[in-house]
Design goal:
The chain is of the alpha+beta class. The chain contains 9 helices and 8 strands. InterPro entries: DUF674 (IPR007750).
Length: 225
């Protein structure tokens, strides 16, 4: 369900204050759904959001070549927008594409109670596979990609897993943290600006959360559009 862009996603960070590094974030379904939806963005849309000037590698030059090429060299009926602003796959985050918060919606399906086959949602009450006349039972009612009512842990390099005491202790041990570690909690809001910064950081860094939420200069560079 779409919401006003002013209603941002809330994220809780656990920070190693001494080293100014995000250890991990505690996130609910809405943020995890947003991060997973980045995998559905076409490359052209990614470059357009991040801007070619902030892209690493040569793909930005390819993008700029399309921007600069004269239309006379393109095949008939081809618009540059097809390459520069491609349509995102269903479920891609409206947070980046339109500036509003909304949970990605997978295709909703129904199943026949007799043969259990799945069909696209429709007004028909007859199964096209077995001919049984029945009201279809709904499934996949929950929108997005992960289940709600669960707290998820997202590491600085964007590894996602269900949150647990064991997983957090394991993570701290992975970094050989000392017992006198100076830990801080920080709550941040994620809107369109932060979303684009996270997209950029995910392509260029293995410390994406630190770059976006603790390193303000990195964040500004990532979203200079």
């Amino acid at each position: 369900m779409a919401a006003s862009v002013s209603k941002k996603i809330t994220l809780k960070l656990l920070i190693d204050a001494g080293n100014k590094k995000v250890l991990f974030a505690e996130a609910e379904k809405d943020f995890v759904d947003f991060m997973l939806s980045l995998l559905l963005l076409p490359l052209g849309s990614v470059i357009n959001l991040v801007t070619p000037q902030n892209m690493l590698g040569s793909i930005a030059k390819l993008y700029q070549s399309v921007e600069n090429i004269n239309d006379t060299y393109l095949v008939a009926n081809l618009k540059k927008s097809t390459l520069l602003h491609p349509t995102a796959l269903p479920g891609a985050s409206p947070l980046l594409m339109t500036g509003t918060l909304a949970t990605p919606q997978p295709k909703k399906t129904h199943y026949c109670t007799r043969c259990q086959c799945q069909e696209n949602i429709s007004d028909r009450n007859t199964c096209t596979s077995c001919g049984y006349n029945v009201n279809f039972g709904a499934e996949n009612e929950e929108e997005g990609f992960v289940k709600g009512a669960v707290i998820y842990m997202i590491t600085d390099d964007l590894e996602v897993a269900p949150m647990s005491a064991i997983s957090s202790i394991t993570l701290i041990n992975r970094f050989n943290m000392k017992k006198d570690l100076w830990l801080e909690e920080k709550t941040v809001d994620v809107g369109k600006e932060e979303g684009i910064a996270l997209l950029a950081a995910s392509l260029q860094s293995v410390t994406a959360l630190t770059d976006v939420f603790l390193n303000s200069s990195t964040k500004k560079a990532a979203v200079s559009i």
